[in-house]
Amino acid sequence: MADVTINQGVTIAEGCMIGAKALVVEDTEPHGMYLNMASPGGAVRARRYKDLPVGKVDAHVGRVPAPVQLSVVN
Looking at per-residue confidence, does 19 or 61 come out higher? Predict the structure, then answer.
């Protein structure tokens, strides 16, 4: 289970990949990859992969599980 939270009114663009346990609070860009990042205040929200600090991304490489099929639950 991905356990992703998407705020009401947020649009997920075509081809987006959302990381497990992500909190998506704003619209995404097409074909973007969004992962969680903890803010200084302790809140966690999804940030676009290309905007993440290189060291933090490198720390997760090799720990990414195989893709899973997600379904929309209404």
Answer: 19
Question: Domain coordinates of the chain in residue numbers?
Answer: 5-54
pLDDT, tens digit (0-9, with 9 covering 90-100), for 3-43: 788 889 989 888 888 887 788 888 888 877 777 755 444 44
Dist CA 3 CA 20 (whole Å): 6
Q: Considering only CA atoms, which of 43, 32, 35 is closest in space to residue 59? A: 35
3-class secondary structure for 6-68? ECCCCCCCCCCEECCCCEECCCCCCCCEEEEEECCCCCEEEEEHHHCCHHHHHHHCCCCCCCC
Question: Which DSSP state fits 5?
Answer: E
